[in-house]
Design goal:
2 copies of one chain form a homodimer.
Chain A lengths: L11 H8 L3 H9 L6 H14 L5 H7 L4 E6 L5 H16 L3 E6 L5 H13 L4 E5 L5 H10 L2 E4 L9 E5 L1 H14 L5 E6 L9 H15 L7 E5 L3 H12 L7 E4 L2 H13 L9 E3 L16 E3 L2 H16 L7 E4 L2 E3 L11
Helix pairs in contact in A: 1-2, 1-3, 5-12, 8-9, 10-11
The structure holds a DNA duplex (30 and 30 nucleotides).
Protein name (chains A, B): Substrate-binding domain-containing protein
Organism (chains A, B): Nonomuraea phyllanthi
GO molecular function (chains A, B): DNA-binding transcription factor activity; transcription cis-regulatory region binding
DNA sequence: CTCGGGATGGGTATCGTTATCCATCGCGGA
DNA sequence: TCCGCGATGGATAACGATACCCATCCCGAG
């Protein structure tokens, strides 16, 4: 391959001739393969360093591995994904794998499917897909050919690994917390238009909200507005909720990002948090801990989840075929965005 | 290539035999090359659709294009980058290019350099690098071989295109705004440890702050704390500033993310924004507009910058060799985080 | 002294696609 | 009738690495 400035990229043959050995020998050193003496290894490594050789990932992809992991995120705007990636990257870096991220389009099954194809076309060694909305069959078809870890989805599969938190426990914690504070008119912000699958985490959070409300005799106060787990979605949903009479005294948003939007709507309506309306989120994205936000939320340790996803993926690439499911138990983090309702 | 479930991936030869033509003909259709009749095109396209053929990017990379653009972001946590990517992706999708994102490690030159290498190894057709801190020589070496657009850096180059805002104007707007409100003890939060290069945007923002302060006879009140453009950095810097006696009445943070951290520190210290301390940021990330945050900031239109970066990159891939520099003029967006200082 | 086998290094087909030739066909002009 | 040329389709050598298989060397056992 000739580069634009006329210099050839350094290839394995350059290294081989420089070290006076065969390309096979160099390849073996690169792959840590069996049948290389210490002397050979040293000689080849010296030539590699001297020439500044770097393996050509595309060429590798034709026969072997690419040492590349593809990550599909709905959208990089969600700060919780940054927490996940911190743990994921850390785990991968140790194994000299590189993560590449593609955006799957928040809750858009077609876009998500395209993103997945793009990764397969690029011959990644493994895939991490976060909160996917595509059908399970599609996921499994993918996973049969490429090691796959699915993060944040509840259906079980024999062909991919799952990393998730117990959304039922988490949602229960949030709703119970608000009820314990004395709230009765508690509303919920969810996502819409993704089918009724109980595998999707927003469905579980919404159903759990309804169940817990009913268990406490608050069935008549159930109010779910389904928009999306984004600031915009949270804002729209909260505006709609605040316009109702009587308006809710507390809002449980299905994600921190949506809670952010809800906070904005509450302030914009001239109401105080938590004085007039309590707001709780879900994810405990690091940014929610900041003092001026201080959002009550449900913690699922993103960094741990990401780190685990990385480990599971490496194991699968290493040959494991059994299916693993890793679940973290969420906890309530009560901060200053929730308080008892005003007495009336 | 045999996939794990025993099925071969559909290749160009499968399409060729199915359509009863040569692989060359199929390749020509795929590339829109010269020398294909309408009949041929239709026949081949039908076979492609029937078999669900998708080009193998890695194999393509061995001889031609990958239709992949690499994006190096310091870290996906910064919400302003999401704004940039929205515009960028939109522009690329129309040309059937796929963007892949790698994290460059906030302000870590070694990590950034590795991320860049990773993209080159993967044979991307072009590179967008956002707010890089590596030496210009390294950037140019890269750009000579791969079409490159640099976003958010002020050095001029004949080999890559630049997209940026006028940071001098922006910083001036912010400081002048605070001065016009009546502030005198105005502090600034910057980044540290990246060398004194005047090409780096934080350097320009910091120097402009100092210049404007001096021009208004406020040289004695200049106070710069250099941490990093992150929430954590903004928080640490603000804590240090608030501990000083007398403490500043206004803080101009070099980025919205740092301003976020500063807001947290102010609240934690039991002080009010803007009553006790005014805070201004830079970037106008969409999230800053939310009512409960309502951060005064400097707008540089991220979506436009991203869209332009995409266009320039496609042009370069298309063969343009002249160098382009696209600069947006920032504007002040005054919100509720700034106000006149309390009378004392 | 030969033989067997482990350790080491190398030859080479192969992965899927592109790009550079080369071959063929049909048709109009000399 | 023959020649030349444009239009079209195909054969094939790369691209850079891997992995299978084979060749060689050395050493101890029989």
């Amino acid at each position: 391959m000739v580069t634009r400035d006329g210099r050839r990229r350094v290839t394995i043959s350059d290294v081989a001739s420089h070290a006076q050995v065969s390309t096979t020998a160099v390849s073996k050193v690169l792959r840590n393969a069996y049948g290389v003496s210490e002397a050979m290894r040293a000689k080849v490594q010296a030539a590699i360093d001297e020439l500044g050789y770097r393996p050509h990932a595309a060429a590798r992809a034709m026969r072997g591995r690419t040492f590349t992991i593809g990550v599909v995120l709905p959208h990089i705007r969600n700060p919780f994904f940054a927490d996940i990636l911190d743990g994921f990257d850390e785990e991968l870096a140790a194994a000299r794998y590189q993560a590449i991220i593609v955006q799957g389009g928040s809750s858009d099954a077609a876009a998500e499917s395209r993103a997945l194809d793009a990764l397969v076309d690029r011959q990644v060694d493994g895939i991490l897909i976060v909160a996917p909305v595509i059908p399970r069959a599609r996921l499994e078809e993918m996973a049969r050919n490429t090691p796959t870890v699915v993060l944040g989805r509840h259906d079980r599969s024999a062909v991919y690994d799952s990393v998730l938190d117990d959304d039922e426990v988490g949602a229960e914690l949030a709703v119970e917390h608000l009820i314990a504070l004395g709230h009765r008119r508690i509303a919920h912000i969810s996502q819409k238009g993704l089918g009724p699958s109980v595998a999707l985490l927003h469905t579980i959070r919404a159903r759990t909200y309804e169940r817990v409300m009913a268990e406490h005799g608050l069935a008549e106060h159930i109010a779910v507005v389904a928009t999306s787990y984004t600031e915009e979605g949270g804002y729209q949903a909260a505006r709609e909720l605040l316009a109702r009479t009587p308006r809710p005294t507390a809002v449980f948003a299905g994600s921190d990002q949506a809670a952010f939007g809800a906070l904005a709507a509450v302030h914009e309506a001239g109401l105080a948090v938590p004085g007039d309306v309590s707001v709780a989120g879900y994810d405990n994205a690091r940014v929610t801990a900041l003092a001026h936000i201080s959002l009550t939320t449900i913690d699922q340790d993103g960094a741990i989840m990401g780190k685990t996803a990385g480990r599971l993926l490496l194991e699968r690439i290493g040959g494991r075929t059994s299916s693993v499911r890793f679940s973290v138990t969420p906890t309530l983090v009560a901060r200053r965005s929730t308080a008892p309702p005003a007495i009336r």
